[in-house]
Write a structure and sequence with these properties.
The complex is a heterodimer. Chain A has 8 helices and 19 strands. By secondary structure, chain A is an alpha+beta fold. Chain B has 16 helices and 21 strands. The chains are: A alpha+beta, B alpha/beta.
């Protein structure tokens, strides 16, 4: 057995030199072993770049697994709740996977790279679960996080910038589609995916070409408002887009100890991802039972009165005279682009039907003193931010 | 063309036969498909040398359940009943154990053994009550489950405070500690150690060996019998009863897969490509083979697959068959003693030492043996004047380092014969033919994963509510229409028929409820 040198301490992404050059606030956090920037100069400006120009996010620390082998499709089809046989090569699927109790372990995107070859991307790491799920299947699962450098290029001018960079034919790429290009002799994969709910792409390349790609991208984007961004700006954008985040809007079932703290996909508003026509997948029996009996929780998107963000607020059925809360907010923000006070929360059934009103108890501090407000909220079903350009093919120039 | 049945039983072991007969009596069209040419699974009699026959795997009857006997009106012919266990000692000073009586030990030991046996049989009775019941699920509101659980609690409490504490103290611990506290006779301690570890991958110092000892007692208070015509006669009688009840039994039909469509069982397919349809398939195969091979991981969920995959079921017992020109001479044994059960386990350390190499994939240089001479009372098994020796030999680990090739088999056989020779010096001259079945051979011949005759180690984590695995202890597997009826299900192995009977009852009561 050969002993492999393992990097000690926090890893730096292949884009680190470029990020560091733009960094003025020195605000970093750890993401699965990597340094990841909260913000690089100003999180508000970075956020506005997403919505009004183009923002670039270093996606390299995102966990990536390569799944191959004769049973790859059957394996993935049992792993996730949706029907992956419908996802052809060159397509990407958002998917969620559950344990035997039908409780969500994580969500992520699955790239059908070519016939029988997949890449699974998720925020958290899941090798133990993926290996356990592989018992009885002829598949190979390889962690390839460090072997692929990835950038999210998000915003209205992203298509124009990438076209300027020389990616011909990108106009035909539909949302959740994949294309491959030659970039300086290396394979550059571009997917029309993202976590911002806007027009945007994700770029995947070997780490050796990372800096070159960054430079070409920023050169092409110079006149189109390209900026680098950190996770704070992205977090705001994803709440506007109504996307869920692990450890915020749900807890990974395999990392949760208390019963009742996990959620099923039905309870997270992801029922559309659960395909009961598939004869078997992890959690199917439990989810079918849940469907029959009714869920305990419901995920709600809230449009709240006022402008005070309802971070971690309790949700009540009425303004006054409540015996107990019906749920709580898991993500909240004032949305600059929607000019709305928005939140994602979880409430007990049968509360929280779309169109119904609930009350959110917001605590806020003004010069040391705490105040409390009960704000009325309406449950909405659409994402707060869903511009037509997000799905227009070809995307218009900006 | 396919044939349609109300139920198909995969494997014609004794449990499969019991289950099929009970279902047929309830009016079902039942088909039993057996891979071998002979029904019975590990309860068969077969010729191993010209004119010499033997119970090829299980050779002693501990616990054919009275309920099974009664419901199927079985009347097995026994060649020997309530056999004495003779623990062979050097210089012909043997210890004889029968029920609560022991001879050849000090008065103190004899007295102590009486108390020990009384307590152990009382505890074993507690287990036995649950042998003929579907184990309850924990954490449900199902009335039947709660009733059984409540009854279990009540029965435990009814032992009285002291005895209940004693039961709870003993159930998880090793037998070695208990034996050394109570007894001085090495032979007695050796023989009881052997009883506790027979058929397991455990030594007398392994935790859980009190439980395996109780399991042995739970059958019929530890009384052993030897069926006339070998163990195959039990299976033959069961097959006869099943056929009489209308069951179709087809042998030489190995099932290659259980066919699942849209998440439910729809039938089975044999290796020859024949297809049989049924919405109920009952597997008499072990749980690992059933789920991992016959069903396939893709039809069940990850957590369940994981639990089944990790079932501990690596056999450690070999079976030795000797064709003898005549009975060997054993110092201190009268001729009539050859009708009994003879064990070679001179002391408790000897048994533990025999187990040591098994932990590292090696066989015991000085093995422990449970020996019978079935031909002694049953002349049909050997030519006139000649005899058959049938022995369970430990330890021969399934995962033998380097694999069980002929050289390894011969070496272990030689070690086994040396162990017998210590007490029967003329044994070698008597042998005209021999056969040694290692767990690898048992796996091949009887289609039991790991060659483990209990279809899974009988330990607390694979017992009662969690046998074979958590979430599937009620004979129903998590695929609609699929059931388990073999030793891998509650209560476990041994020719008892309990698992087969309980499975049939679970299937019928489920149907009634639906």
């Amino acid at each position: 057995m050969t002993i492999q040198e393992v990097h000690q301490g926090r890893l730096r992404s292949p884009f680190y030199s470029r990020l560091a050059a733009l960094d003025t606030v020195n605000q970093w956090h750890e993401w699965k072993g990597y340094s990841s920037a909260d913000a690089l100069y100003c999180e508000d400006m970075e956020y506005f770049a997403i919505r009004n120009a183009t923002a670039v996010f270093d996606l390299t620390p995102m966990t990536k697994y390569r799944i191959t082998g004769p049973d790859a499709l059957d394996y993935i089809n049992r792993l996730v709740t949706r029907d992956m046989s419908k996802i052809k090569p060159g397509r990407v699927a958002y998917a969620v996977w559950c344990d035997d109790r039908g409780q969500v372990i994580d969500d992520g995107t699955i790239f059908h790279l070519k016939e029988g070859e997949y890449r699974l991307c998720s925020q958290e790491r899941h090798m133990a679960w993926l290996q356990t799920a592989a018992i009885g299947f002829d598949v190979s699962i390889v962690l390839e996080t460090a072997d692929v450098a990835a950038l999210a290029v998000q915003g209205p001018t992203s298509f124009t910038i990438l076209s300027k960079m020389g990616l011909d034919g990108l106009e035909g790429l539909k949302p959740f589609g994949l294309m491959n290009f030659d970039f300086d002799g290396a394979d550059l994969m571009v997917s029309r995916t993202g976590f911002t709910g806007d027009l945007g792409y994700e770029l995947w390349i070997e780490p050796g070409k990372a800096e070159l790609l960054w430079d070409a991208l920023f050169e092409a984007g110079k006149l189109y408002g390209i900026r680098a961004m950190g996770t704070h700006a992205l977090e705001l954008a994803r709440i506007e887009a109504g996307y869920l985040a692990a450890y915020e809007d749900f807890l990974p079932a395999d990392a949760t100890m208390r019963t009742g703290r996990t959620r099923s996909p039905l309870e997270l508003g992801l029922g559309w991802l659960v395909d009961f026509k598939k004869p078997n997948f992890n959690g199917r029996r439990a989810l079918a039972e849940e469907k029959r009996r009714g869920s305990t929780w419901r995920l709600v998107k809230l449009d709240i009165d006022g402008n005070k963000a309802a971070h971690h607020s309790y949700i009540f059925a009425k303004e006054k005279g409540n015996k107990r809360e019906i749920g709580f907010v898991t993500s909240a923000a004032w949305s600059p682009v929607c000019k709305q006070n928005i939140a994602i929360g979880t409430v007990r059934m049968p509360h929280g039907a779309v169109g119904s009103n609930v009350w959110v108890e917001i605590y806020y501090q003004r010069e040391m003193h705490w105040s409390r407000a009960m704000a009325k909220a309406i449950v909405v079903d659409k994402p707060f931010w869903f511009p037509p350009r997000r799905s227009a093919t070809p995307p218009g120039p900006y | 063309m396919t044939d349609k049945y109300d139920a198909i039983v995969v494997g014609g072991g004794h449990n499969g036969l019991v289950c099929s007969a009970l279902l047929a009596r309830a009016g079902k069209q039942v088909l039993v498909l057996e891979a071998n040419d002979q029904v019975g699974g590990a309860a068969v009699t077969r010729e191993f040398a010209d004119g010499y026959s033997v119970s090829a795997c299980a050779h002693l009857l501990y616990q054919l359940q009275p309920s099974v006997r009664k419901e199927l009106k079985l009347n097995p012919k026994l060649a020997a009943e309530d056999m004495t266990t003779i623990a062979l000692g050097e210089n012909g000073e043997h210890v004889r154990i029968q029920g609560g009586k022991v001879l050849g030990v000090s008065d103190a030991d004899a007295e102590s053994y009486r108390g020990f046996h009384k307590r152990m049989t009382r505890f074993a009775d507690l287990l036995r009550t649950y042998f003929n019941k579907t184990p309850p699920r924990l954490g449900t509101k199902d009335f039947q489950d709660l009733k059984t659980l409540g009854r279990l609690g009540f029965d435990l409490r009814r032992l009285g405070k002291t005895e209940m504490r004693e039961f709870l103290r003993l159930i998880g611990i090793n037998i070695h500690d208990e034996l050394t506290e109570r007894f001085e006779s090495p032979l007695l301690k050796g023989a009881l150690s052997l009883d506790a570890v027979l058929g397991t991958h455990l030594g007398p110092r392994s935790p859980n060996t009190i439980m395996t000892y109780l399991y042995r007692l739970a059958g019929d208070h530890g009384r052993v019998a030897s069926p006339s015509g070998g163990m195959g006669s039990i299976s033959d009688e069961l097959a006869h009863v099943a056929r009489e009840s209308g069951v179709t039994i087809r042998t030489g039909m190995p099932v290659s897969r259980i066919v699942i469509r849209n998440g439910r069982v729809v039938g089975v397919e044999t290796e020859s490509g024949e297809r049989f349809d049924s919405l109920t398939v009952i597997s008499n195969a072990d749980p690992k083979q059933t789920i991992m091979q016959l069903v396939g991981a893709r039809h069940v969920e990850t957590g369940f697959t994981h639990r089944v995959h990790h079932l501990r079921m690596k056999g450690n017992a070999a079976k030795l068959h000797l064709a003898l020109d005549g009975l060997p001479a054993i110092n201190g044994l009268a001729k009539k003693d050859f009708a009994d059960r003879i064990v070679i386990a001179p002391d408790e350390h000897y048994v533990e030492r025999a187990f040591n190499p098994a932990k590292y994939g090696e066989s015991s240089p000085e093995p422990v043996l449970e020996i019978t001479f079935p031909s002694f009372r049953d002349a049909s098994l050997a030519p006139t004047g000649k005899h058959v020796l049938s022995a369970v030999v430990q330890y021969a680990p399934y995962e033998f380092k380097g694999g069980w090739d002929d050289a390894a088999r011969q070496a272990f056989e030689a070690a086994t014969i040396r162990a017998i020779e210590r007490f029967a010096p003329d044994i070698t001259q008597r042998i005209s033919a021999s056969e040694l079945l290692t767990p690898a051979d048992i796996e091949r011949e009887f289609h039991i994963t790991g060659g483990h005759w209990h279809h899974g180690e009988l330990t607390l984590d694979q017992f009662l509510f969690v046998r074979p695995v958590c979430g599937a202890a009620q004979y129903r597997m998590p695929v609609d229409g699929l059931y388990l009826c073999g030793a891998g299900a509650h209560p476990g192995g041994g020719v008892s028929g309990a698992a087969g009977r309980n499975a049939a009852r679970a299937i019928l009561s489920r149907e009634k409820a639906a």
